[in-house]
Amino acid sequence: MNIPATTVRPATTDVATVELEPLPPLRGRPRSDRIHRAILDATRELLVQDGFTKLRLERVAARAGVGKATIYRRWPSKEALALELLFELAGPHIEVAESGDTRGELKAVVMNSVRSITQTPFGPVIRALLSQIAGNPSIGDPFREMVVGARRSQVALVIERGIARGDLRPDADPSVATELLVGPVYFRLVFGGRLDEAFADRVVGLVLEGYAPRVPPIPRPMPR
Amino acid sequence: MNIPATTVRPATTDVATVELEPLPPLRGRPRSDRIHRAILDATRELLVQDGFTKLRLERVAARAGVGKATIYRRWPSKEALALELLFELAGPHIEVAESGDTRGELKAVVMNSVRSITQTPFGPVIRALLSQIAGNPSIGDPFREMVVGARRSQVALVIERGIARGDLRPDADPSVATELLVGPVYFRLVFGGRLDEAFADRVVGLVLEGYAPRVPPIPRPMPR
Amino acid sequence: MNIPATTVRPATTDVATVELEPLPPLRGRPRSDRIHRAILDATRELLVQDGFTKLRLERVAARAGVGKATIYRRWPSKEALALELLFELAGPHIEVAESGDTRGELKAVVMNSVRSITQTPFGPVIRALLSQIAGNPSIGDPFREMVVGARRSQVALVIERGIARGDLRPDADPSVATELLVGPVYFRLVFGGRLDEAFADRVVGLVLEGYAPRVPPIPRPMPR
Amino acid sequence: MNIPATTVRPATTDVATVELEPLPPLRGRPRSDRIHRAILDATRELLVQDGFTKLRLERVAARAGVGKATIYRRWPSKEALALELLFELAGPHIEVAESGDTRGELKAVVMNSVRSITQTPFGPVIRALLSQIAGNPSIGDPFREMVVGARRSQVALVIERGIARGDLRPDADPSVATELLVGPVYFRLVFGGRLDEAFADRVVGLVLEGYAPRVPPIPRPMPR
DNA sequence: AGATAAGCGAGACGGTACGTCCAGTCTTTAC
DNA sequence: GTAAAGACTGGACGTACCGTCTCGCTTATCT
Asked: Is A134 helix (H, G, I), strand (E, B) or coil?
């Protein structure tokens, strides 16, 4: 995934961008990448520890060994800072490789979500930011467009390939497939319940069954 | 649904609770029910308007025409106040009436969620409290136990009845059914997407199909 | 000294006042003298401990084992309560007995003040209330009229008798005598310094000397 | 007079103190002298208006156009703030110039007190703080040491010079002279009575008379 | 004896101020 | 010109009291 930088002037190592936007003479002390990292790391730790509501920029600054103004110079708000962190952490968990196995690819979709939540810092961070994504457009809109959009695309590809292989019926609807595969995972993130492979198997099993090619309609025996 | 009172001393009208916890002599001026309502109403309005992060008890007090101390006398924290509100709003949207129609009952499950989110104050309120439910055990645990538990029970009943009617296969698993039916709804609440009847129909359709009684695998009637 | 009650309806033991103000029928439960005492005692203790600024009626009520309203029923304000306490404590230290000995009577004036400050609860109480007496007319005016006035009268009598005895010169001015005798004592109460008999002796000595009958003016030698 | 700073880090203009306490590098934005003044001025106005008991730091902050935290950053308590104000106001009214005229110098002592009380903001301020000086060591002790001590020294000098000139008798006791000269003034400040030149004259007259050289009991040596 | 009326302890109530913490900005020195 | 440090205004926090107001109960007088 390719996530847009929030900062006006990018970190100096981001050579590509510098080449594209050759910023003028570039005077004075250059911004430090080390500081950028330190701030994001401190934000992650405190966000996981205390939640977004209790995230204090003063503490972030202290933990990062940085002046508050340095943070405000790089991000316009606490939300923007959280958003960059979210992009950074969400990126790696989207893609699904083509494997020739429809069940396997569907399971990869679900397990990507499960693992990102249970085994990486992304889990606690998104937990802390769910309300912001749901209710704060300045975070929610970019997140939807970039991260959710990317995931939907991946799922659409998986469905397409399944149809092509004849594993799914031709009218299998990719527009609710993401919800059906990933919705249960996020439901458990919020409302509790095990997030493991068995759970993923059941979800995938039901979706596969639900999207299976129809057998010729067998007349059901009349009740009574 | 039966929601436990958060207040130490219950409102005087709550006769049932008084009977269960026969509080001693009851001295001093009794707490006012009218004020209790006013505070919850003010909380709801501001929570919907600004989200949990920006909810200010000082404003709640002002809007309810109440002193701050009166709020702290009844709830130990902003979270506890939000929790009571959540219970109150969540209650009415859980139950599913038996109708004899499995598809209809499953759809009722989904549509109850959809309507509670799109057409009642519960939607904005839970949006604002998702992070607290997910990450703050003092809110999350009671909510899971009471509200989510109640919904799971209702779904289990619907599945049972569906099996009994022969509309669902006997091994249809009620333990992920709630996730499959309601998970997609909450996914869209957070990550965007239409929440309407068409969406509910697709979700229900897929679950019905996935849980449909299996075609007897062997002696398939010879085509021809 | 005779101090007027602040309360609208006086304690029942204050017979004299009851006779003067024969309050109508007097229905309902009568006010308790025991409570009156308990409140004044609690006030005294807390006033001495914490000063007037930090005197809390809620604590007075608690210490006296009394409801707050019971205090407000009897005194309109914290100041009025303090004033009654002040009257009660100031009373006993005013009078000076005629002894035939002018120096002795003057010393009695000073020592009355010294002892009231160093050896009775009046000392700490008035210390705590000095600012109120000086700056709050609702306390200062009655106090001046009753307590200070009484002291001035006593001093005037002492001076008169001293003149009559020929110990003081006929134009000895009683209008500043109180200030000269008692002012130094209160000066030390506020600004520090020993308050003992030696101090009293020096003050009295100087006043006696200053008010002594004039010797025939001896022409002082011209300085050079 | 030389008054000690209450602030941990002194205002930058207070060069002398900086030299005595060479605070390290001096980082961050320095504290503003203008703000220091504004706070003291606002405190003075409100203290005069309402007395110490009703002095509200929130109002001081508002009137000074300052955040509350700025006040707490500089003074640990309302009392400390009042103390600095007191020092500032008391300073100018202590000194007594040598004039060669003993009566005049004694009168200067008394009139300094009278004028400071009747014609400068010091009057209302000390009126409001009398109880604190008398009963609160954290205010009283420094005040006694600095301000009262300074006044005692001045009076001692006046007495010494009077003895040297032969206007006062050699054993005139400076240790109670301050009480006798200034005590009456503070007595009237608290307990009422005119504070004017006539009053000063009477006080001075009596002290002069009381301390006058004794008539030679035995045949005085013939002049010349 | 019962009715009437206050007194009383307890504690809820709307407010005001407390002293603390942060948000977001500004001002200094150091690099 | 960027950075760390930290002062600055302003707003909310959660607590403590103020002075008032219900409550249930007690203690007296009046009928």
From this structure: helix
Distance from CA of C113 to the nearest CA of D (A): 13
Q: Does residue D94 form part of some domain?
A: yes
* AA identity, residue D211: Y
A54 and A112 part of one domain: no
Together in a domain, B117 and B167: yes
- Weakest-pLDDT range from C104-113, C183-192, D96-105: D96-105
How far is residue B205's CA from residue B102's CA, in Å, rounded to a whole number? Answer: 11
* Amino acid at site C200: A
Q: For position C24, what pLDDT does the model report?
A: 57
Question: What average pLDDT does the structure give for chain C?
Answer: 85
Same domain, D146 and D55: no
C94 and C66 within one domain: no
For residue B147, what pLDDT band results from cuts at 50, 70 and 90? very high
| Domain of residue B164, CATH code | 1.10.357.10
Whether the CB of B56 is below 8 Å from some CB of chain A: the reply is no
Indicate if the alpha-carbon torsion angle D172, D173, D178, D181 is positive or negative.
Answer: negative
Rounded distance between C-alpha atoms, residue A152 and residue B74, angstroms? 45
- 3-class DSSP assignment, residue C157: helix
What phi, psi does C198 have (nearest 5°)? Answer: -60, -45
CATH at A51: 1.10.10.60
The structure tokens listed for A185 are 């995972």
Which residues in chain D, range 30-89, keep a C-beta under 7 Å from any nucleic strand E atom? Answer: 30, 55-59, 67-69, 72, 77-78
Residue D133 to residue C186, Cβ atoms within 8 A: no
Total domains present in chain C: 2
Judged by phi (left if over 0) then psi (alpha if -120 to 50, else beta), residue A192 lies in left
Confirm if D204 and D112 have CB atoms less than 8 A apart.
Answer: no
Q: State mean pLDDT over A24-33.
A: 58
Give yes or no: residues B181 and B111 share one domain. yes
Residues D103 and D186 in one domain: yes
Q: Structural domain of residue B129, as residue ranges? A: 89-211
Kindly state the tokens that stand for D207. Answer: 């002290």
Q: Residue D92 and residue D86: Cα distance in Å, rounded?
A: 11
Co-location of C157 and C111 in the same domain? yes
Across the interface, whether the CB atoms of B191 and A132 are under 8 A apart is answered: no
Residue carrying the six token digits 């509350």 = D68
B97 exposure class (CB count in 10 Å sphere: 0-12, 13-18, 19+): exposed
pLDDT at A219: 53
Could you tell me the pLDDT band of residue A34, with boundaries at 50, 70 and 90? confident
What mean pLDDT is predicted for residues B138-163? Answer: 91
C179 interaction partners in chain D (CB closer than 8 Å): 183-184, 187-188, 193, 203
Domain boundary among A24, A49, A74: A74
- Asked if residue B54 keeps its beta carbon closer than 7 A to nucleic acid strand F, the reply is no
On the question of pLDDT at C33 being above 60, the answer is yes
Residue A129 burial (CB count, 10 A) = 27
A32/B contact by beta carbon, under 8 A: no
Protein-proximal nucleotides of chain F (any atom < 7 Å from a CB): 1-30
Averaged pLDDT for residues B111-140 = 92
Note whether C23 and C33 are within 8 A (CB).
Answer: no
Q: How confident is the model at residue B217 (pLDDT cuts 50, 70, 90)?
A: very low
Report the distance separating Cα B201 and Cα D23, nearest Å. Answer: 74
Is C73 near strand E, with its CB below 7 A from some atom of it?
Answer: yes
Q: Do A190 and A101 fall within a single domain? A: yes
Stretch A166-178: mean pLDDT: 86
What is the mean predicted confidence (pLDDT) over C52-76? 95
And the tokens for B187?
């996914």
Q: Which residues of C176-190 are buried (b: 16+ CB within 10 A; e: fewer)?
A: bbbbbbbbbbbbbbb
In 3-state terms, what secondary structure has residue D22?
Answer: coil
List the end-to-end C-alpha distance of chain B, in Å, as a whole number. 55
Distance CA C124, CA D134 (A): 9
